Amino acid sequence: MTRPLRIGITCYPSLGGSGVVATELGKLLAEKGHEIHFITHSMPFRLGKFHRNIFYHEVEVSDYYVFRYPPYDLSLASKMHQVAKLQQLDLLHVHYAVPHAICALLAKQMSGNKLKVVTTLHGTDITVLAQDETLKNIIRLGIQSSDAVTAVSRDLIRETRELLEIEEPIELTYNFVDKRIYYPREVSDLRLDFAEPHEKILMHISNFRPVKRTCDVVDVFAKVHERLPARLLLVGEGPDLPKIQSKIEAMGLSRKVHFLGKQDDVAEVLSLADLMLLPSEKESFGLVALEAMACGVPTIGSIAGGIPELVKSGETGFLSPIGNTDEMAANAVRLLSDEALYAQFREACLHRARTAFCNDLITAQYEQIYYNVLGIPARIAVPACD
Ligand code: GMT
Asked: Is 188-355 in the same CATH topology as 6-176+358-374?
């Protein structure tokens, strides 16, 4: 029997899939008996109620008057060191390289190099920020100084190697969904609030940033709507939302599109959908497509980043070249007009989410990485995922 670990987790607590994955991982590790210390600037939004074995340490930033830019990174590094010392942490697991990997490196140095650091790369920390010459070298340093580095798709590993010219091992740890939360919910009553029984529901969930190509979402929907009765549900908020609202109005589709804003119970909302639209320009993984898959909802998306590792085109959705909204719409219509094909895709979605991206499997992979970096001999049993 291996001993439970004391793990510090840092992530962006208030937005994005990386924060969701970090928080859900912390909860699952705590359930397995590990002691988890979140070290973040605010309470991770998916943490919710009190959990046994989970503690939260808030990073407070000094706003002394000489600072034009209050040094959050230094406050975080200090807090990491302080928590590591007081709570006798075995390791820090940081999600999203910038600035967390460097803060963890500083905390490690402050602890006399005893503390181990695991860094998980999530996407734009590499695909966008590592292209910025002012950040590239420091991101490389953060990665090379970590005791283990993981990335959420093969494509992200490839891109990290290419952009940063590094040889160090990067382990693949796909994102996961908790199957106790993500499953098709009974929402037939709620569905009537948005669509007539004969109408199909297409959905897009994101932070409405340019990489999501939300204009393509609207174009795909408009083309589908010309051929069958349909509604579009848009979930989330972000910089491109006003542009999208104007586009929808200009296209005369306002009565067919519903803006749901930010939602907490994503599984409930996803269960309303017949299709998920994810036509992104960049997407290292696409957690939302996995969440949809776990609720039995196929994805129509782009061949970008790690999406093809997640969505099997022709089995759990259809993928097309970035920007090819004609093909995306044609695939959506094909799937929505053929009941037998749709049922087959839905089953494949449920099966794939529960097996390849099962929470027990991925949690065990992370645990194995932790014991490896600590030099503790352990073989973590991977439960059968069905
Ligand atoms: O940079 C972002 O888009 C945010 C980031 C995040 O913090 O959620 O998203 C990335 O990480 C997610 C979780 O691993 C992935 O599911 C997203 O695909 C990835 N985003 C991009 O690559 C654009």
From this structure: yes
Q: How far apart are CA 266 and CA 115, in angstroms?
A: 36
CATH 3.30.2350.10 correct for 188-355: no
The ranges assigned to domains in the chain are: 6-176+358-374, 188-355
Asked if 246 and 214 count as a contact pair (C-beta separation under 8 A), the reply is: no
Chain segment 100-144, per-residue pLDDT in tens:
999 999 999 999 999 999 999 999 999 999 999 999 999 999 999
Ligand 1: residue of 284, 299, 310 to mutate (most ligand atoms within 8 A of CB) is 284
Give the model confidence (pLDDT) of 316-366 as tens digits: 999 999 999 999 999 999 999 999 999 999 999 999 999 999 999 999 999
Atom 2, ligand 1: which residue's CA is nearest?
Answer: 124
Provide CB contacts within 8 A for 49, sequence distance 6+. none
pTM for this predicted structure: 0.95
CB contact at 8 A, 321 and 327: yes
How many helices (H) and strands (E) in the chain?
Answer: 15, 13
Output the CATH code of domain 6-176+358-374.
Answer: 3.40.50.2000
Residues sharing a CB contact under 8 Å with residue 270, sequence separation 6 or more, in sequence order: 182, 203, 205, 276, 291, 292, 295, 297
pLDDT digits (tens, 9 = 90+) for 152-172: 999 999 999 999 999 999 999
Best of 122, 126, 132 for a ligand 1 pocket test (most atoms within 8 Å of beta carbon): 122
Buried b (16+ CB within 10 A) or exposed e, 251-270: eebeebbbeeeeeeebbebb
